[in-house]
Write a sequence for this structure.
């Protein structure tokens, strides 16, 4: 833990030394709410699961099997589980606030199922809110992504006025506005038709490949059109 | 972060900021702070009036004598203090120091010539240790070679002469300054000697109802003219730790002592002043505390209402420090304003309400530094605590 902490601190002090998150390991992890139920035939809960940087995973789930719990554990905003989750060798339970901020803006990009856009801001402002924190994309990059996902005309509209499908695409663009080792997509295309699903999947895959990052997508039905290396049943 | 980014954060987080609650806090905090500051400043300004009202005797000194009763006189009970009584007095918790008045053991005949007329009378004087005189007049002390004796007299004596004696006898009135220029011939007689020394009045006392000469002179003269029998002290000067203390009255009453003059009353007045100041400052602090609770409640409510947004921002990777910044800024702005306005209000009230009166009494007023420092400390504490509360709550939002 101390070594990993030191590494992350080194990263913060010398911005050029990029600490890479090469592996996410889960050992016998079980959400506290499932403690009495057991793993329920899951291939993730109570198992040893390795997510490697550069590989692509689909976590296929039924409702109520803890899909969102999994995402919230990996993104550090919930800790109600037993077992151990590690980034590399570091148990994530030992990460401090500063380190989680670092993880969230440099190592894991996360698209929550409920998107968590700010309805009072425009689509572009929502994206900028993230990009100004990371300084990762140019304005042109962002406009190109809006074009590729077919919503170039929605940039300056308040998110509240967009359809769910459009919002989902804005959220995907926002998620891509940061460097990442893993991209965590919680039902990214649940409200997209096949064409838009394909466009979004292509954009995400391209960006992940470009950064050599891993993809972890969850789905309860409408699977994102990404060729994956491994499917886990949750 | 750029300004534009700050603007985005501000646009998101300003929602639910209640101007009414902030104004409520600011006004309450302002009132509390002004009360504390004004009370403190008033105390500092008016204190000289109590402590230097009598330049000779400080307010925390009392003069003790034994009560002279007719029965006691008949039975021959002594008006002098015994060693045992002195020891017992010195042991009292409210006593800091006990000094004895030394009386002369010879006869004194004083005469002065003024405006061509002479004034002759038998005199009496006493001495106290110099440490009981807080402001020693210039030239205090005695050198046997020079034979010049500085004297401090009660200001009442001068009034008595000017408004009583001089008025009825058609004699010129004299000012304090003039009195100092008039030499008094003191003829000391005793132990078979007689000698004349030159006395000069160098100071006046408002409340010490006697004539005081330096201790050195008293020792020298007693040795030379005294009959050799040492007399026990009949008057004591006592430095007390708190003049209004009830224990003083109880003790003196139980032992049949009397507190001379109004010194105890002045002590009580000063004690009351301190008590009142204390009460007013406490009220001010309570109002400030209530204001602080309004602020904390308002912050809590605000963070509660905006918790989802704050959480979303934290999810994007914003640090708690970054998302707290707009709220910290509001608090800093409001508190800095309160601080400046409170200090200004205190200074204005001081000038408007009581400084003219104090000036007319010849009191210049104390320093305003201490109350301003206290204001900075109070506002500093309120700000630091509120910022700490915000940060702790935002930190908690990192985990649901």
């Amino acid at each position: 833990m101390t070594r990993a902490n030191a590494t992350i601190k080194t990263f913060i002090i010398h911005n050029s030394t990029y600490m890479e998150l090469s592996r996410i390991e889960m050992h016998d992890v079980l959400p506290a709410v499932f403690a009495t139920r057991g793993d329920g035939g899951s291939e993730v809960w109570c198992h040893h699961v390795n997510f490697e940087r550069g590989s692509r995973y689909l976590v296929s789930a039924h409702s109520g099997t803890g899909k969102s719990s999994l995402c919230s554990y990996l993104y550090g905003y919930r800790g109600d589980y037993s077992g151990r989750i590690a980034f590399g060798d570091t148990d994530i339970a030992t990460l401090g606030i500063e380190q989680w901020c670092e993880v969230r803006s440099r190592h894991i990009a996360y698209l929550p199922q409920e998107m968590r856009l700010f309805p009072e801001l425009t689509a572009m402002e929502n994206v900028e809110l993230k990009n100004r924190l990371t300084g990762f994309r140019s304005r042109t990059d962002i406009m190109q992504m809006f074009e590729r996902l077919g919503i170039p005309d929605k940039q300056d509209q308040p998110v509240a006025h967009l359809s769910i499908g459009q919002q989902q695409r804005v959220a995907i663009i926002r998620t891509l506005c940061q460097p990442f080792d893993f991209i965590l997509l919680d039902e990214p295309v649940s409200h997209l038709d096949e064409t838009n699903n394909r466009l979004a999947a292509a954009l995400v895959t391209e960006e992940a490949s470009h950064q050599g990052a891993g993809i972890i997508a969850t789905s309860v039905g409408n699977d994102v059109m990404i060729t994956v290396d491994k499917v886990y049943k949750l | 972060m750029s300004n534009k980014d700050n603007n985005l954060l501000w646009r998101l987080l300003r929602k639910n900021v209640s101007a009414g609650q902030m104004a409520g806090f600011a006004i309450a905090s302002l009132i509390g702070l002004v009360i504390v500051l004004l009370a403190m400043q008033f105390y500092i300004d008016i204190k000289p009036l109590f402590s230097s009202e009598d330049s000779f005797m400080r307010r925390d000194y009392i003069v003790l004598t034994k009560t002279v009763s007719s029965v006691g006189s008949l039975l021959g009970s002594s008006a002098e203090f015994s060693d045992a009584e002195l020891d017992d007095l010195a042991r009292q918790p409210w006593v800091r120091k006990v000094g004895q008045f030394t009386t002369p053991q010879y006869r004194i005949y004083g005469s002065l010539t003024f405006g061509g007329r002479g004034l002759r009378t038998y005199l009496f004087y006493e001495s106290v240790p110099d440490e009981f005189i807080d402001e020693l007049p210039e030239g205090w002390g005695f050198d046997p070679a020079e034979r010049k004796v500085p004297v401090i007299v009660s200001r009442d004596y001068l009034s008595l002469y000017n408004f009583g004696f001089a008025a009825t006898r058609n004699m010129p009135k004299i000012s304090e300054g003039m009195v100092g220029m008039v030499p008094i011939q003191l003829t000391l007689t005793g132990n078979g000697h007689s000698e004349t020394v030159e006395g000069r009045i160098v100071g006046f006392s408002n409340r010490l109802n006697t004539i005081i000469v330096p201790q050195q002179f008293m020792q020298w003269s007693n040795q030379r003219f005294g009959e050799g029998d040492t007399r026990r002290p009949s008057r004591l000067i006592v430095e007390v730790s708190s003049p209004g203390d009830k224990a003083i009255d109880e003790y003196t009453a139980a032992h049949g002592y009397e507190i001379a003059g109004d010194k105890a009353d002045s002590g009580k007045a000063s004690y009351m002043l301190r008590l009142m100041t204390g009460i007013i400052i406490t009220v001010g602090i309570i109002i400030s505390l209530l204001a602080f609770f309004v602020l904390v409640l308002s912050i809590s409510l605000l963070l509660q209402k905006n918790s989802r947004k704050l959480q979303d921002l934290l999810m994007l990777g914003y640090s708690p420090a970054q998302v707290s910044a707009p709220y910290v800024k509001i608090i800093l702005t409001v508190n800095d304003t309160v601080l400046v306005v409170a200090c200004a209000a205190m200074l204005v009230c001081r000038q408007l309400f009581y400084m003219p009166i104090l000036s007319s009494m010849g009191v210049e007023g104390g320093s305003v530094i201490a109350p301003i420092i206290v204001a900075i400390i109070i506002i500093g504490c309120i700000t630091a605590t509120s910022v700490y509360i915000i940060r702790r709550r935002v930190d908690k939002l990192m985990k649901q």
About this structure: Chain B has two domains: 3-52+268-397, 61-263.
